[in-house]
Amino acid sequence: MSAATTMSSSLVPDHILESNLPPMDPDVPGAARDFIVSARARKNHLSEQISDLQSTLTALVAECESLDCQIRKHEGVLSPLRRMPPEILFTIFGFTPPWLVSAVCARWRTICLSQPLLWSTVVVEREKWGCCSVKRLESQLERSRDVPLNITFVCDIVTVSTPEQTNMLFILAQHCQRWERVTLFGSEEFILGVAEQVRGRLDILSRLDINMYHERDVASLDFLEGAPIRDLFVNKRLCYRPVSVPLFPQLSRYGGSNTWTGHLDMLRSCALLVECALNMGDAAEYAYIGAPILLPNLLRLSLSHHGFLAYLDTPALVDLYFDYDLESAHQDLPRFLRGVSCRPTRLIMTAGFEADFHPDVDQLVGVIAAVPSIRCFGLIAKPSLPADSVVDFLSRVSPALESILLSLGGEDVLTKLLEGTWDRRLRSFTLSTPDFLISSENSSKMDELRSRGIEILLVSSDFGLYAETIPQSLRLER
């Protein structure tokens, strides 16, 4: 064998190789030179072999990658999506922004571009300005052709809008005859900047959720006059920023923040309402004299002040949500219910977000007693009822009550609740359990009750209970 393929061991002693001692044997230098020559030859031979193997490995890796690509292509042939009709794909694409699905492949892009409805939802939000541009907006509006538009435009309510934001709203206003469902959030100057451009041209606008920040006593949205709006929400997320709006007799849903006068003026013309959520200022600002306003079709009502009940006649009312004031709610609610023929089945009271709230069991029982039709009752309050009060309350409420929603202040309340209610008609509990852990004993009790068909839902906060209990359209900003 040649030195390139094999080599002998070194003849230089280890104690010389592993130290700086001078070699005393005269043969050591020659042996070192012979080893170096042999080792270099061997190394060159190994490098050639490594190069050959690397070339082979590179070729094998490239072949594997090519096969992976071919396998994926052939698997794609078998994919159900490949055989799925365009009509089905169109339905699926409706749950995803068209900008994303149209970039997947040529077929999907062709389908997206052929369906203007996919491009009819326009979302311009301050959190996504990087994804928004005038060019993209113009492209989307062109691709939506003539179909009705669903628009969400959220701008900062305090800072001055940028020229690009103003330009985008101006471009959208050019298509206002196609506005069908619109959500606008911005300053008065920003929104009213297109008022004259859209006035009298909102031919198919059926739903409007507008939140317009202003510093005046009352701002005006008179440019909406004549629009066929059926669902109207004005400053729902901007508490106590009153806005004057035209009357819309055709409304089925109405909500937002306004003065007592503003709300009452609107309600007098809205006999078709089925749902209403009203945020208002202090009751002292208004004293209404006259017959209650008849809302014969109203099914769901949410109020920031229970005193507003005195001005309404709602014979079809099913769900009632309102802020509970300890001083007078126990008087106003029974008086209201005795004066109308409605028999609501769901009553949710929110209270106690102020530190001085202390629920009174006798008054709560009086409220429930005035509403024997109630099947679901909720009290979202902080501080919550003490443990003994919870037991007292549940033992005295209407035997027809089937569902209860409560804020719990501690696990002692939960323990009392679990120990004393399963033999009643109560079949459902939704409870907030903030700031405490559930013991294994109470967990076992809940499992036992669930096995008997009793529903128990725990949420981690009073706000979570509020969100779980009250539908989105009826929630009031706090």
From TrEMBL:
Coiled-coil regions listed in the entry: 36-63
Keyword Zinc: no
SUPFAM superfamilies registered for this protein in UniProt: F-box domain
Taxonomic superkingdom: Eukaryota
Matching InterPro entries: F-box-like_dom_sf, F-box_dom
Domain F-box, chain residue ranges per copy: 82-123
Record's keyword terms, sorted: Coiled coil
Protein name, as recorded: F-box domain-containing protein
Organism the protein comes from: Roridomyces roridus
